Recover the amino acids of this structure.
């Protein structure tokens, strides 16, 4: 039994170490994947980020409404709501960043070279990650404003 376990372990180590990978545009690409699979992999990653952000659009709307209610109540007692109004503006900018990304995202023609597709999708991943970070920051600031 020990010999069988040993042989199996060697086979696993060998199969893992034989995978060929290269670095392209700062990311590790598994060369065993076909160009089509590489393109699909990065596309799926970008769309996954998009799909994670979409529900946050409703969260932004809800948070903006809560901040507006708080701003109205402060104005009702004669206090300044300028900071809260800035938080609303920031939330709207985060939402607009997402809308801009979606408007500008394009499907590339089928005949587009692999390198061009990978470059475009890498850029789109960077852009959607920047949108993700912006939305995270404005939502945290908005929640903080409500709780203070």
């Amino acid at each position: 039994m020990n010999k069988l376990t040993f042989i199996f372990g060697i086979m696993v180590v060998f199969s893992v170490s034989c995978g060929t990978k290269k670095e392209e545009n700062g990311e590790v690409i598994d060369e065993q994947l076909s160009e089509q699979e590489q393109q699909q992999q990065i596309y799926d990653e970008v769309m996954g980020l998009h799909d994670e952000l979409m529900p946050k659009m409703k969260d932004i709307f809800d948070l903006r409404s809560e901040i507006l209610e708080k701003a109205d109540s402060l104005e009702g007692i004669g206090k300044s709501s300028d900071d809260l109004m800035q938080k609303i503006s920031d939330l709207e900018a985060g939402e607009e960043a997402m809308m801009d990304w979606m408007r500008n995202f394009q499907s590339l023609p089928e005949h587009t070279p692999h390198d061009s597709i990978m470059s475009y999708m890498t850029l789109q991943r960077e852009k959607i990650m920047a949108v993700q970070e912006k939305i995270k920051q404005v939502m945290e600031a908005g929640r903080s404003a409500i709780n203070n």
Q: What stands out?
A: Residues 1-20 have pLDDT under 50 and may be disordered. The longest strand covers residues 21-24. The longest helix spans residues 35-76. The chain has one domain: 36-105+114-147.
